[in-house]
Amino acid sequence: MAVSYRNDVRAMLRIAIPLALAELGWVAMSVIDNIMVGRMPNSAVAIGAASLGGALFYGFAIFGIGLMSGLDTMVSHAYGAGNMPEARRNLAAGLGLAICAAPLLAILILSTATLLGWIGVSDEIRRQAVGFMRVLVWSLPVLLIYTTFRRYLQGIHFVKPITFAVVSSNLVNLFGNWLLIFGNWGAPAMGIRGSALSTVFARIYLAGILMLAVRLRDPGAFHSLRPDFGRVRQLLQLGLPAALTIGFEVGVFNAATALAAKLDAISLAAHTIALNAATVTYMVPLGIGSAAAVSVGKALGARDQRHAARAGWTALALGAGYEVCSAVLFLLLPEPIARVYTHDPAVIAFTVRLFAIAAVFQVFDGLQTIATGALRGAGNTRTPMLWNLVGYWGIGLPVSCWLCFRWRWGAVGLWDGLCLALMLMGVGLVGIWRKQTKLWKTT
Question: What is the 3-state secondary structure (H, E, C) of 251-280?
């Protein structure tokens, strides 16, 4: 038995480590953007504007990324059953959906600019945030194409190119930030709009590398890319609840960012830094959750429910262990982490307070993310959607608003409410996964 579980851990790590590194590389783009704009004069305004502009973009872009998550289930099931033609047809459906979704989501993103005026964001922050978002929106089509290629590659358990592509694209983004924010080497000094343009170029590179990886690994994938609309409908049936799940989560944190912008520049900057750092640590369980999805899906495709259950529990154990370590890091080194982003002492002091709350919800955030991935591999994307809707929007955000504005706890109140939601969802979704594995044992 011990040998079997060691083998399970090694198998999970072979998939989870590259995907976790890829997720870390993905969020590193945002980290690099915030660090670089934080070196501009009046760093609190620059960081806050880039954060708000990113929130306007990612609120809908993440929904588009979530639409493609049904490929985890469809491709991994086909791969587990040894049916590569089926997996390729799923890839074609994903590309068709990406091309159709991109212009619709771009229109929605551009229409959100007026929201900042309605909620009372200051003119200076609003002007820079809208400029940042209007440049960043040009990266949306390639972002969705990249996501489709990535889901296909991880579904067929070929994950190393994903890590290489995301990590190397950060070098492209770093150089572009240095060039375009400050106007080095004769380039125009574009400020935070230069940071957004750099991200656009980095994502074009990212999609190109993964397209090449698919072509080299599976040349037959490009022989026929005409999408089957019945398959697109199936992808939507799986992907839409997953997209809503991600949208509810990202949306509530974007809403918290918008509410923090109503307070003051220091609160907004501290919220942005703490959320950015917490997002970095979150990327590892997100990668483990993706590994759980494709591992569970492959096992079920091979009709091995026992292996599917072990894969999910192995992923949860790995994620919980990691998140305990990241919580300790936030408690022991809050000030040095904050100083990576800014030298403003007031922003650093406020950020340290928020890191203490982030340390509490780390474990529960990891558990709910990995349980969601395992359930997605089993084809269940609706239950996590409902838990996210009720947890974040029915409980977390109302409590956050009450504590922030009624009790006047400010950004600390915002974070306390979200922490409560994550604790409830972490416990609840692990319980749902436990119920699923018990059902497999009886059948």
Answer: HHHHHHHHHHHCCCHHHHHHHHHHHHHHHH
What are phi and psi for residue 225, nearest 5 degrees? -110, 15
The per-residue pLDDT string of the chain (443 residues; one tens digit each, 9 = 90 and over) reads 455 667 778 888 888 888 888 877 777 777 788 778 877 777 777 877 887 888 788 878 888 988 998 898 899 889 988 899 999 999 999 999 999 999 999 999 988 877 777 766 777 788 888 889 999 999 999 999 999 999 999 989 898 899 899 889 999 999 998 999 888 888 888 888 898 999 999 999 999 999 999 999 998 888 877 777 888 888 888 888 988 888 888 788 878 888 887 888 888 889 988 988 888 888 889 889 989 998 999 899 888 899 899 999 999 999 999 999 999 999 999 999 999 888 889 999 999 999 999 998 888 999 999 999 999 999 899 999 999 999 999 999 999 999 999 888 988 999 999 999 999 999 999 999 999 999 888 76
Tokens 């974070």 belong to residue:
415
Who contacts 318 (Cβ-Cβ below 8 Å, separation ≥6)? 9, 12, 13, 16, 288
Specify the length of the chain in residues. 443
| Of 75, 120, 418, 108, residue with least CA distance to 275 | 418
- How many CB atoms are closer than 10 A to CB 305? 18
Report the C-alpha gap between 291 and 319 in whole angstroms. 11
Nearest alpha-carbon partner for 175 in 1, 329, 29, 21? 29
* Sequence letter at residue 181: I
Residues 348, 341: Cα–Cα separation, whole Å: 9
Alpha carbon distance 269, 62 (integer Å): 22
How many C-beta atoms surround the C-beta of residue 109 within 10 A?
Answer: 21
